[in-house]
Amino acid sequence: MKWNGMGEIKTVHHLTELARLNAGIPMVDSAILFGASEEIALQSFSEKSAGQRKVVQPDAAYQHIHFIPLSDFGVRQLRILTVPNWKERILDALFLPETRSYGIGRFEYDACVEGGYVFSHLDGDLNRLIRFKETIEYIPGPFEVLCFPHQVEFLREYLEGRAVIKTIGLEAIEQALEIKEADTFE
């Protein structure tokens, strides 16, 4: 897949209309991208289709694109995304309210702990990660990225040492969201 942008923008417009008319959902701003690796997913954003110049950014169609790996970890990560209010519940479990940015910070980060900006990549949101990396190149840190163990290698390479990477186990997040083993997909 090569990310063109125009087809994706048309698709999200149609999805928004279907969601609005059939489910009362006013806006579709997120997508799930399944694949073998995050590197390949990011590469597809940066390449253009044959004979075309790249004119649209990946986040022009969807504000959030959650990457889910085609693996056992991906199955468990997908289950997390199906829990109501999953993102807020995870951030509430990880950070004190007074440290949270609540999306109103000057850039993409989730908490400010002891003077350092913490970005959670537990949702695999590639668009947020791209925006985070673009910003941290120009402002002083320190920066930390919180992720699952299977995301570490990709993040080290992609962030090029600009942030400290810390991990949390899938089990801890599943426990915080009260996901039981029987709840996971088979």
Detailed description of the structure:
The structure is a single chain. With about 190 residues, the protein is an alpha/beta fold. The chain is built from seven helices and six strands. The chain has a four-stranded mixed beta sheet, with helices on one face.
Secondary structure topology:
Elements: H1 6-23, E1 30-35, H2 38-46, E2 64-69, H3 72-81, H4 86-94, E3 111-113, E4 116-120, H5 126-136, E5 143-147, H6 152-159, E6 164-167, H7 170-176
Parallel strand pairs: 1-2, 4-5, 5-6
Antiparallel strand pairs: 3-4
Outline of the structure:
The chain is an alpha/beta fold. It has helices spanning 6-23, 38-46, 72-81, 86-94, 126-136, 152-159, 170-176; strands spanning 30-35, 64-69, 111-113, 116-120, 143-147, 164-167. The protein is 39% helix and 16% strand.
